Automatic annotation (TrEMBL):
Keywords carried by this UniProt record: Membrane, Transmembrane, Transmembrane helix
Record-given protein name: Conjugal transfer protein TrbL
Lineage: Bacteria, Bacillati, Bacillota, Bacilli, Lactobacillales
Pfam families in UniProt: TrbL_2
Transmembrane segments: 29-47, 67-85, 137-159, 191-209, 229-247
InterPro entries the record matches: TrbL_Firmicutes
Amino acid sequence: MKIDGSTLTQLLSSLDKYNPVANELIEKISKGLLPVAMLILSVLMYIEFSDTNKRVQIEQGRVNMELFFSIAWKYFVGFILVIYSDEIFDSIVRLANAIGNIINKVTTDKTELKFVVPEISGKLKTTQKMILNGLNAIAHFFNWFAEILAKILVFLRAFELFLFKAFAKILVAAYVSDEWRPVATGFIKKFMAVALQGCLIILILKLYPALMANDMFSIAASGNWLKNLSTMFVSLLKSGVFILVLIGSQRKAKEWMGG
């Protein structure tokens, strides 16, 4: 198989270009949650200032201005992150798309790299041909299913990105709290992993045909029954591995992001 044009376009599209209607809905939801995020920040800031003031009064008898400004700066950054969370998350997607574009533009001396199911050749018995034709049909089905799976993964990736973007303001607000910071950082890492998954899918779709074209398992179909059978069997295994690698693309991206 090769990279389908529509699949590639969707993978390299920003959220507003992938689905303008869905993106508009998510941005309205995000803006609607802004007061909630601000309230969370305000409550956390009040609690921290109150606790810090009590602690400093007990220990030193007065508030340390350097400590005061460090806390104020932390919450100022928190307010900026909350207000511009949509723009920040969109920028992460654009960065991932830029990486994907670079990967997609890389070519080899080969005019076209494409994984194909080998044809059956030679004089074979009727029973042997029936078995091989059955395996050939299954291999073609796996190849077709891999293309459909790639489209489904692209859709699921976009769906997840929209969900992350909708709740970004709420979860990012937790970053200012030392206790809840792992929640915010984990949320951001997972979003980055989902965005990075697009690059991985492009890399897999380009690398797999090139890798399997001349690997050590390649067997040229010939008139020999066993060689034909081996070729069909290996073709099925390749398609199965391809499907598993595609399914595991997001898990791999999360591993890279430390998730």
